[in-house]
Amino acid sequence: MCLLQPTGCYLKSIGRRHPPCRHLTLPGAVHEVPRLRSRKAYSGELAFYGGTFTALPSEVIREILETATPWVRAGVFSGFRLSTRPDGISVKTCSLLQDYPVKKIELGVQSLVDEVLLQSRRGYSVATVERAVALGACQGWRLGVQLMLGLPGDSPARFMDSIAQAIQLRPDFCADLSHPGFD
Asked: Fewest beta carbons less than 10 Å away: which of 38, 67, 103, 166?
């Protein structure tokens, strides 16, 4: 959830109420499971994107993952991939997620320059990113770092610094995103 309305976040406020998963299910999805299960080539991860998954209330996270875990056990998916903000990873979050087949976490780091994070209203610091990476590594998850090019206060030199620092964090994968603010 983008409570700070950070630069680069294009999500509208989703409010404070979250409907239970039973209201979010797709009617035909259950009927597709046997067909998907029979296709051995289709064993990728089930991804949860679109904001900060780990900022949802813990009961909502638990309900979503409880609903989806049987698909992993049935071999339809190999595990879960989550996308979240660095400040969405805590000891409490890790404790909650360890009960589920989470394989990868993508951290929307955006920058590894404190001034850029501040000017972009991200609401966390480089130290927060480093803590999130350390916590995720302890869980055995594959960790990804997403960087965003062209945020307020960024420059080509600062972005290169972010890349160098991201490499030092030793993530399993990286992604870069463009932002319209870079000329």
From this structure: 38
- Enumerate residues 6+ apart whose C-beta is below 8 A from 77: 43, 44, 45, 46, 68, 71
Write the pLDDT tens digit of every residue in 63-116: 889 988 988 888 888 999 999 999 999 999 999 999 999 999 999 999 999 999
Is there a contact between 8 and 123 (Cβ–Cβ < 8 Å)? no
Helices and strands in the chain, H and E counts: 6, 5
Listed in sequence order, the residues at least 6 apart from 99 whose beta carbon sits closer than 8 Å to its beta carbon are 65
Burial class (CB in 10 A: 0-12, 13-18, 19+), 163: middle
Contact 72, 78 (CB under 8 A): yes
Question: How far, in Å, CA of 154 to CA of 148, rounded?
Answer: 10
Q: CATH for 47-178? A: 3.80.30.20
Q: What b/e string do you get for 27-49 counting C-beta neighbours within 10 Å, with b at 16 or more? A: eeeeeeeeeeeeeeeeeebbebe
pTM: 0.76
